[in-house]
Design brief:
This protein is α+β, with helices and mostly antiparallel strands. Helices cover 28% and strands 47% of the residues. It has 3 helices and 5 strands. Strands 1-5-4-3-2 form a 5-stranded mixed β-sheet. Strand 4 and strand 5 form a beta hairpin. The longest helix is centred in the N-terminal third of the chain and has 19 residues. The chain is globular and about 45 Å long. The relative contact order is 0.20.
Length: 136
């Protein structure tokens, strides 16, 4: 179980990441992830092995007109499976602009954080899934 200060520090890292994403602040958003972070997105055919790979994909999306307009996080659950590891699971409502116009997304996300030597928390893995899947 994490102490109050640790929980507050993790929540600060979570809030900063979500705020940067929702404001399309790519510098702050990508700095919230470790260079060795990995990413699994249901919208992309293969896992991304690094922050750089994700940044490259993001740049492709932007060249097609992609922009995050807003992000809402709800149903947050933060657990601590190890002293220097925190896991956020939450529901994410995102408004984006893409080549088709404005799109509302409803997704589930898990983000793994690790505590660094300086006691700051950084994201090391993100897994994004659709909120609901319709059977065929």
């Amino acid at each position: 179980m994490a102490d109050t200060a640790t929980r507050a520090d993790v929540q600060h890292a979570i809030d900063a990441l979500i705020r940067a994403f929702g404001e399309h602040d790519t510098t702050a958003y990508f700095e919230a992830f470790s260079p060795d972070a990995t990413f699994v997105f249901y919208t992309h055919p293969v896992p991304l092995p690094s922050r750089e790979a994700y940044r490259d994909l993001w740049a492709e999306w932007e060249s097609d007109g992609f922009r995050v307009l807003a992000c809402r996080s709800s149903e947050q659950i933060v657990t601590f499976p190890a002293p220097d590891v925190a896991v956020l699971t939450h529901r994410v409502g995102t408004t984006v602009r893409d080549s088709t116009g404005t799109v509302e997304l409803d997704e589930r996300e898990t983000i793994l954080f690790r505590r660094g030597e300086d006691s700051s928390w950084i994201a090391v893995h993100e897994h994004l899934s659709p909120q609901s899947i319709t059977a065929c």
